[in-house]
Design the sequence.
């Protein structure tokens, strides 16, 4: 079943986070991920607001988790650590 990778991000270091973004996109694509929302308009109805919200669709929860744990994504993530505050979750869809 497909899954959504949902990230809520506050960027604290634009330069370092830019390096993350350059590497993360190809790593996500390599694992079958496809961005369906990236930094667009949003309305926060509850909880902590983060100015950047990203949603990617993956073929499965396992594919999304494998992507996260992959050497390519972990290399990208090294640039995001210390350059952002993030929450990331993977949610299985019903379709």
Sequence:
């Amino acid at each position: 079943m497909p899954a959504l990778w949902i990230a809520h991000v506050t960027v604290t270091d634009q330069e370092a986070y830019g390096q993350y973004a350059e590497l993360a996109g190809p790593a996500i694509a390599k694992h079958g991920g496809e961005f369906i929302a990236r930094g667009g308009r949003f309305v926060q109805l509850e909880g902590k607001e983060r100015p950047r919200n990203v949603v990617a669709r993956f073929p499965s929860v396992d594919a999304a988790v494998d992507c996260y744990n992959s050497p390519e994504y972990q290399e990208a993530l090294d640039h995001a650590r210390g350059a952002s505050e993030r929450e990331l979750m993977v949610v299985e869809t019903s379709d």
About this structure: The chain has three helices and four strands.
